[in-house]
From TrEMBL:
The keyword Metal-binding applies. Keywords: Copper, Metal-binding, Oxidoreductase, Signal. It comes from Mytilus galloprovincialis (Mediterranean mussel). This is Tyrosinase. GO terms for molecular function: metal ion binding; tyrosinase activity.
């Protein structure tokens, strides 16, 4: 690395460190100046609140108007037009993000971008609506109290209604955070890829949200996964669902372990970038799949309440804390009141697919982008590199073509690619390959010492999927099928289980 860049990074980290002591905020931008990449830390002066570190705000202490823009009558009219709930001829099925078809993901991306590009209202339609979450009155109604659930349910519907005005069939998928939490390296999840919500290591540059801009001086859309905070686990969800009253899972009364708002705050912080700060969080489109998930949990919670004989539509806690959460306070969303948030009207026609689940006898990990971890009895997200490897293999299968150099280097014949059985693909004749592997060894796999191979000797490779799993376990780097095959050759050299071939 260029030493100047290194020094810059050290400076940035130092700034961040110092800033955390003095409780100042810095926002990191990277920009290209005279063809050189420069990383800049800008001090942000604001009363913005970090998730999980919220000082109680009251109406008497608004956030200095920094995050307010005046609403024109056209703005108000458009926002008002979004405040309705679905009916029986407008049923919404919200799936797990990884369960969407390619077309559904594409439609969602287009709808978001059509809103972002639509400047017939102030800012643009996406940002104007996202900004509702930031306006001081709404912010005070939405956070740090039992109305957290109801407020975000209505807000989510408004965004979904807006998206559906652009693409009729779109619903907001839920991001089952627990599928990522169960991974060894959650930042490698397929979610953080251009086909889904975009990258997680700084400015988002590729995919539907590449180079999105946010408001109020916060610049490029950015994420810094895993810096602080944590993801929601399946156990967190089970804890929440073990309770039976709204007041037991929300502020101000709920303990942290059962507190859905606090647990969700940790996810905001884990994502970092805009998501970390309440007033700008909704500018990141991952905000909506995250809230679709908390809403999905609340839906399940309310169904359980009904089964236990508790009426969720009259379960607003008596001890609600701040006055902005009192049942007859306005929600600051049209004329909706806080108490309206727990009514059934909003989600009566909103359905969620069951949260993906698997065990020894049942596999409900029903997507190409997740798999069952039987030992944990959990569905678990696939990583970007796993998907990439599988992609390449399926392309090869489809093309039904074998590169000549591979044929020459030992594939029995081209038929092996078109056979149904995975293990057919492993027909490799050793004699010729071992010769090549010595070279391969150094070119591609110098990282793997003999010891690290030895440590994995117990792995049984019988199908091509075993190979993928083993391979992605050993390396996280970008690869292609040729490398994968060379890797197989490498394994051969170490006398890996070959008998069955
Ligand atoms: C932030 O506040 C400091 C001290 O109040 C001031 O000197 C600085 O100019 C402000 N920066 C911006 C970008 O407003
Ligand atoms: C149901 O909702 C759709 C979409 O908002 C609306 O066009 C339609 O008039 C509604 N139908 C009824 C019966 O309310
Ligand atoms: C939105 O605008 C950008 C920039 O002009 C353009 O590249 C993109 O195709 C537009 N998106 C849609 C969905 O119209
Ligand atoms: C696995 O889950 C299914 C579906 O919930 C359930 O019917 C079955 O009993 C479970 N099996 C085991 C071994 O726990
Ligand atoms: C997998 O293949 C699809 C379709 O060809 C492509 O759009 C996608 O980007 C690929 N994903 C990865 C992670 O390589
Ligand atoms: Cu919020």
């Amino acid at each position: 690395m260029d030493t100047r860049i290194l020094i810059l990074w050290i400076t940035v980290y130092l700034c961040l460190f110092v800033s955390s002591i003095q409780s100042k905020s810095f926002f990191i931008h990277s920009s290209v100046v005279n063809g050189k990449k420069k990383i800049v830390a800008t001090e942000v002066n604001s009363t913005a609140s970090s998730f999980g570190n919220t000082r109680p705000k009251t109406a008497a202490e608004p956030n200095s108007g920094k995050f307010e823009i005046p609403l024109s009558s056209a703005d108000q009219e458009w926002l008002g037009s979004l405040l309705y709930h679905p009916n029986e001829s407008d049923i919404r099925l919200r799936k797990e993000y990884r369960q969407l078809s390619e077309k559904e993901r594409g439609d969602l991306n287009v709808a978001f971008n059509l809103l972002k590009n639509d400047t017939s209202v102030s800012l643009n339609k996406y940002d104007l609506l996202a900004n509702i979450h930031a306006r001081s009155s709404a912010n005070a109604n939405a956070h740090q109290g039992p109305n957290f659930m109801g407020w975000h349910r209505v807000f989510l519907l408004m965004m979904e209604n807006a998206l559906r005005k652009k693409v009729k069939t779109v619903t907001i998928p839920y991001w089952d955070v627990t599928l990522d939490e169960a991974m060894d390296k959650p930042y490698s999840s397929i979610i953080w890829s251009p086909d889904f919500i975009g990258s997680g290591d700084g400015v988002i540059k590729k995919g539907a949200f590449g180079h999105w801009q946010t408001q109020f001086g916060y610049g490029n859309l950015m994420r810094f996964l895993g810096g602080q905070g944590k993801l929601m686990s399946k156990e967190n969800v089970e804890d929440i669902l073990s309770k039976s009253r709204l007041g037991e899972i929300t502020n101000p009364a709920a303990e942290k372990k059962f507190n859905i708002e606090e647990i969700h705050n940790d996810v905001h912080v884990w994502i970092g970038g805009q998501m970390k700060t309440i007033e700008i969080a909704a500018f990141d489109p991952i905000f909506y799949p995250l809230h679709s998930f908390t809403d999905c949990i609340w839906t399940e919670f309310r169904e359980q309440q009904k089964a236990k004989g508790i009426d969720p539509t009259s379960d607003y806690p008596e001890f609600y804390g701040r006055s902005t959460h009192s049942p007859f306070a306005p929600m600051s969303l049209g004329s909706v009141m806080v108490i309206d948030g727990i009514s059934d009207i909003w989600n009566q026609y909103v359905q969620y697919t069951p949260r993906p689940f698997c065990n020894e006898t049942y596999n409900g990990c029903n997507s190409l982008y997740m798999k069952c971890d039987i030992s944990k009895r959990k569905c678990i997200s696939k990583s970007r590199s796993e998907v990439e490897i599988e992609n390449q293999s399926s392309k090869l299968k489809k093309d039904d073509k074998v590169p000549t150099d591979l044929v020459n280097s030992g594939f029995k014949n081209s038929e092996s690619f078109s056979k149904e059985s995975d293990s057919e693909m492993l027909y490799i004749s050793n004699r010729q390959l071992i010769k090549r592997s010595a070279v391969v060894n150094y070119r591609h796999f110098t990282k793997l010492s003999e010891n690290s191979i030895a440590a994995h000797k117990v792995v049984t490779i019988t199908t091509i999927s075993d190979v993928y799993q083993f391979y992605s376990y050993l390396t996280d780097s970008h690869t292609d099928l040729i490398n994968l095959l060379l890797f197989l050759i490498y394994l051969n050299q170490f006398h890996f289980k070959q008998e069955q071939y």
